[in-house]
Write a structure and sequence with these properties.
- Helix content is 45%, strand content 12%.
- The chain is an alpha/beta fold.
- The protein folds into 4 domains: 5-141, Response regulator (Rossmann fold, 3-Layer(aba) Sandwich), CATH 3.40.50.2300; 158-305, P-loop containing nucleotide triphosphate hydrolases (Rossmann fold, 3-Layer(aba) Sandwich), CATH 3.40.50.300; 312-385, Helicase, Ruva Protein, domain 3, CATH 1.10.8.60; 426-483, Arc Repressor Mutant, subunit A, CATH 1.10.10.60.
- The strands form 4 sheets. Strands 2-1-3-4-5 form a 5-stranded parallel beta sheet, with helices on both faces.
- Helix 4 (87-95) runs parallel beside helix 6 (143-155), helix 18 crosses helix 19 and helix 19 crosses helix 20.
- It is globular and about 75 Å long.
Length: 483
C-alpha cells in the first residue's frame, strides 16, 4: 500500500521531520500535525489509512483519544509512540486498541515494517476491557524490558500458551501474573505450581486431582490445579522437572482440552490458559530423552526469554527504588541510595538476578540505621554475597577458565551423569547447537541488537545469522537509538 496516507501527530519538530522524510521515502503520503485536535479532525473526517501518534500531546493525551478513534473508525490502525517506556504504557496502548506500541527512541526500519504489516493485515477489534492502570507489576525501561512489554501487550487479549525461559530470579512468575492480571482472564483464578517442589509420584494428583481410594492414603476426593484454575491461568513453573508420565497426560489435555482425575473415568473439560516456565534448556532434555518433543512444541507457542539482570543493568536504580517503596510499606524506615552506591549495584553481576538484588536492598534497609546508603555499605554487603572462588584444594583463587577448559569440564560432568553408560547418539551436533545459542546471543548483546554488526563479528552472512536466530529462538534485544 505504497499510496496509503499516514497521519502523524507529535509535538517534537525533530521527530516530525524524521518521520516525514522516512515515510515519504517509503512511498507513503504523509500528513503531520503537532496537536491532538487536528489529528482528531482528520480521523473523524475519514482521512488517513494509519495513525502514528505520541502519547503526550500539548492539548490531549493520546490514551484519552484512542477510545474515540476506536469507536469512530474501528478498522483504522494506530501506532503509539512514547518516551515513558513502562510496562503500563504498553498495556494502556494495547487496551486502548493500538495496533502496536513503539518506545522512543525507535528504530525507523522496524517502524516501516510495522506500518506495512498494519496496513496489510485485517483489523481485529476486541472488546474494550475495564481500566487497569494501578500498580506497576514489572519494572525497567531498558531495551530488553521494552521487548518483554511489547510481547506481553500483544498477548493480553489472547489465550495463546506462553513458554517463559530465563535464569533463576529473573521474575518468570511475575511475568506470568502480569499476563493474567492484565489479560482477558483477569477475573478468573491464577494458580501456580512448582514442579520441582512436588514429589514426583504426586505430581499427577496435584495437577489433575484424585478420586477417593485412587491410591493408598486417598481418603477423600481432591481437586487438582487444573480444576482450581478453571476459567483462569495455570502457571507451570520448572516444567523441565515434570516426570514423563505427567508430561504425557499434560500433552493429552493440551491436545484434547479435557482430562481425567487419578482413579477417575469421566473426562472433565478444561478451560485454562497455560503459562510454563523453566530455567533449563528443554532442547537438551529432549535430546537426553527426559522431555517430550511434542509437548515442548505444544507449550512453546509463544517463547519469551527473560534477560538476566546483568544484561539490563540500567534498570537497577529503578528496581532499587521499587524495592525501597515496598519495604517502607511493610514498616521499614525509608532509605536513599546515593549515586556511588547505585553505580556499584549496577556494576555487580547479580548471579541471583532480581531476587538477589531485592534481598540486598531489604537487608541493607533493615540492618543499617543511616538514612543514606553509601558505596561503602554496599561494597561490604556485596563482599558478603560473593564467596571467594577457591581452587579445589583450597589454595589461591582459580584463574578464569578458557572456553576450551569450560567445555572440557562441562563434558566431563555430562558424561559422568550417565555412569557406565554412554549418552544418546548425535552428541557432536547437540553440543554445537547448545554452544550456538549463547554465542549468537552474546554477539547480539555486544552489538546492541544490530544484526549486520553481529554477523560481521561472527563471520557469518547476515541471512545465515537471521536463519539461526529464527531456528534457535534467540530473542533480539534492540538498543534504542535516535530516531
Amino acid at each position: 500500500m505504497g499510496n496509503a496516507t499516514i497521519l502523524v501527530a507529535d509535538d517534537d519538530a525533530a521527530i516530525r521531520t524524521v518521520l516525514n522524510q522516512a515515510l515519504t521515502r517509503a512511498g507513503y503520503e504523509v500528513r503531520i500535525t503537532s496537536n491532538a485536535a487536528t489529528l482528531w479532525r482528520w480521523v473523524s473526517a475519514g482521512e488517513g489509512d494509519l495513525v502514528i501518534t505520541d502519547v503526550v500531546m500539548p492539548d490531549e493525551n493520546a490514551f484519552d483519544m484512542l477510545p474515540r478513534i476506536r469507536r469512530a473508525r474501528p478498522d483504522l490502525p494506530v501506532l503509539v509512540m512514547s518516551a515513558q517506556n513502562t510496562f503500563m504504557t504498553a498495556i494502556k496502548a494495547s487496551e486502548g486498541g493500538a495496533y502496536d506500541y513503539l518506545p522512543k527512541p525507535f528504530d525507523l526500519t522496524e517502524m516501516i515494517g510495522t506500518i506495512g504489516r498494519a496496513l496489510s493485515e485485517p483489523r481485529k477489534v476486541a472488546a474494550q476491557p475495564e481500566d487497569t492502570t494501578e500498580g506497576m507489576p514489572l519494572v525497567g525501561r531498558s531495551a530488553a524490558m521494552q521487548e518483554i512489554y511489547r510481547v506481553l501487550a500483544r498477548l493480553m487479549q489472547t489465550d495463546l500458551t506462553l513458554m517463559i525461559t530465563g535464569e533463576s530470579g529473573t521474575g518468570k512468575e511475575l511475568v506470568a501474573r502480569a499476563l493474567h492480571d492484565y489479560g482477558k482472564r483477569r477475573n478468573g483464578p491464577f494458580v501456580a505450581i512448582n514442579m520441582a517442589a512436588i514429589p514426583r509420584d504426586l505430581i499427577e494428583s496435584e495437577l489433575f486431582g484424585h478420586e477417593k481410594g485412587a491410591f493408598t492414603g486417598a481418603q477423600n476426593r481432591s481437586t487438582g490445579r487444573f480444576e482450581q484454575a478453571e476459567g483462569g491461568t495455570l502457571f507451570l513453573d520448572e516444567i523441565g522437572d515434570m516426570p514423563m508420565d505427567a508430561q504425557t497426560r499434560l500433552l493429552r489435555v493440551l491436545q484434547q482440552g479435557e482430562y481425567t482425575t487419578v482413579g477417575g473415568r469421566t473426562p472433565i473439560k478444561s478451560d485454562v490458559r497455560i503459562v510454563a516456565a523453566t530455567n533449563k534448556d528443554l532442547k537438551i532434555l529432549i535430546n537426553q530423552g527426559l522431555f517430550r518433543e511434542d509437548l515442548f512444541y505444544r507449550l512453546n507457542v509463544v517463547p519469551l526469554r527473560l534477560p538476566a539482570l546483568r544484561d539490563r543493568a540500567e534498570d537497577v536504580p529503578d528496581l532499587v527504588r521499587h524495592f525501597v517503596r515496598h519495604a517502607v510499606g511493610e514498616g521499614l524506615d525509608a532509605k536513599r541510595f546515593d549515586g556511588d552506591a547505585l553505580d556499584l549495584l549496577k556494576a555487580y553481576p547479580w548471579p541471583g538476578n532480581v531476587r538477589e538484588l531485592e534481598n540486598v536492598v531489604r537487608r541493607v534497609m533493615a540492618l543499617y540505621p543511616q538514612d543514606v546508603i553509601s558505596r561503602e555499605i554496599i561494597d561490604n554487603e556485596l563482599r558478603i554475597e560473593t564467596p571467594e572462588q577457591s581452587s579445589p584444594q583450597g589454595g589461591a583463587p582459580m584463574a578464569q577458565a578458557t572456553i576450551a577448559q569450560s567445555v572440557e569440564e562441562n563434558m566431563r560432568r555430562y558424561f559422568s551423569g550417565f555412569g557406565e553408560d554412554l549418552p544418546p547418539p548425535g552428541l557432536y551436533h547437540r553440543v554445537l547447537e547448545e554452544v550456538e545459542y549463547p554465542l549468537i546471543l552474546a554477539a547480539l548483546t555486544a552489538t546492541r541488537g544490530n544484526q549486520i554488526k553481529a554477523a560481521d563479528l561472527l563471520g557469518l552472512n547476515r541471512n545465515t545469522l537471521r536463519k539461526k536466530i529464527r531456528e534457535l529462538g534467540v530473542t533480539v534485544y534492540r538498543s534504542p537509538r535516535p530516531a
